[in-house]
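Format notes (please read before filing issues)

Several people have asked whether sequences and structure tokens are stored in separate files. They are not. Every record keeps both together, in the order shown below: the sequence lines, then the token lines. Line labels are part of the format and must not be stripped during preprocessing.
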Amino acid sequence: MNESVGDWWSTGITDIQPGSIRLRGYPIQDLIGSVSYPQMVWLMVRGELPSAAEAELLELTLVAAVDHGPQAPSIAAARMAASCGLDLNNAMATGVNLLGDVHGGAGQQCLEVLHRLRAEVESGESPESAARALVTEYKARKAFIPGFGHRWHPHDPRRDPLITALGRAVEAGTVSGTYLTLALALETVLAEGSKPVPMNVDGATAAIYAELGFAPELARGLFVLSRSVGLLAHAWEQHNEPTRIKGPLPKGINPTYTGPGPRSLPEN
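Then the structure lines:
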């Protein structure tokens, strides 16, 4: 009976026994002080430890996406939750739960686009022609290409250091460079119009995740891990401020009303 119950929650990740904690087979006491946090993240989600160079690339993505201030809905929501008296974990969860397809999902979506482009290149298309066909398709349905353009930054300051580091990793043989080539081809095609649409942090991190072999779904999970640091910092800052019940608009500013004018109930 006990074995059948244990099988119900079987896992290849964690082995817990009295006085023993093993993660992916490694004793926790050996991991502490021997591996970095990015290495630990990789071990937990991938099953094996990364090389130092792979872990360095992963760390860059985790640092890059930490925060974008209260201008980001997830951060603003966490701050509002904290101002309403919620504990830090609840405030952080409020922000995390805003990270969906529209806000927080572009990295995963861009990685899926890069996978699609790779399949087309493997079938005989050049990176440029595959990228151009994809851009044409997205423009025809008036859709945004995930990972490119930013509503706040004409040029995302996080793009260059990430892409430069990825280029060095390609030169060092750490990764193949296949997805970097595709991402840059897409950026080149998007620059051909009247208004260039450069790569943003989601596109740059997606290229790195693709090169490192992470599944698209994990790209969003890794973004959540990164942004949770910003959520914690902002929730804590708000927790220590006197403002209570901080709404989306400052006091004295009401949202514009667009409903019916004043009216009376009809007589019975």
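For reference, the curators noted about this record: The chain has two domains: 12-50, 51-247. The mean pLDDT is 96.
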